[in-house]
Amino acid sequence: MNLAATPLSWNACLSALRLDRWMMGELDATDAETVGSHVASCATCSTAVAGMRGVREEVRALPLPLALVRRPESRRRFATGAVAGLGLALAASLVLVLRAPPATERAKGPGLGLAMYVQHGAEVRRAGPGETVSPGDAVRFAVSTPAPAYVAVLSVDPAGRASVYFPQADRAAQVPAGSEVPLPLGTRLDATTGEERLLALFCASPVELEPIRRALERGHDGAPLPADCQGLRWSFVKR
Amino acid sequence: MILDAAAIATLYRSHGHVVLRRARTVLGSEADAREALQDIFTALVRNPDSVRSAGSIVGWLYQATTHHCLNQLRKARTGARVLELHVRPGMAESGGPRGEAAAEVRRLLALLPEDVAAAVVYHHLDGMTHAEVAELLGCSRRQVGYLLERAQGLWDRAEQTA
Q: CA torsion sign, A110 to A94 to B54 to B144?
């Protein structure tokens, strides 16, 4: 028997590695589009991806290994007032955790994620925390949440001005559960250069945003969040 | 880059399936695959630097899982547990001709030198191109071709003597 034709042999057109990298957002935009188009039109590869997603859900339902259960003191105070039902982790949040410098990753609950897509000229890419973008770039956010949550994205620009990116409303808006659910509003970055800080809120109720925006503008970046909210903070640099 | 226990827990939730799925295939045992999942992430807590410098988290997890599982197959073989491993219930290929053929592949993997066995896993079990295998093994595509030829030769020889 040929080793290529054993019961353990992979039978999809694209390798498991490529499909995993695609699922986990590791491919560049062009390659990701190529793989996405292929998977959408190939029954064998879409079945392989469905299987991968099935195992992903299995792992999310498993208890954490004991060595991972203990959390650092600085995070513990945020881990308790969780949005009901939030308990799963999603790929987007991983990128944030691994790439963000310490000051940008606080108060993040399990399974919550914020992703930012940047259009610079004709190129669209997924940006990580700390990444450099340009004035005039168009950005759009996507959030990951394992349960429906009231979501808002606020920012503090390099001049210290705080604003609400999403929603264009007084209170946080409900977003369905999902991985990288695109928020309906995009924005174009203004000409102010420097570090811009973001706060994504995931709340159990439609919290009022103006008090939070004011606190951010007063420089209270680390102020406690509303009791039923969890926050995800990171930053990018406009240059 | 932050990689404390909380970050690794997030990594476990988001990427653990890469380990579990591949460990199931290579080991053919649900219990051993889950143990592999736990072991790999627990080891990461002790040594986070290993993944911190990796260019690709998925690639790193492939390497760690392959290394761990091949070690387990060798231990199972030397510990005379290999028969138990092959008939353990709960896996789709644990019985019948397909199960026996899968068991044969695992026996071969346990016998092969690590780089040859890893090339077999990456190319045949994960469907990787020679270029992808070369990236994970850190060698040339030509070397991958050589490793796979060597594996096929050993497989053919094992079949002839069976």
A: positive
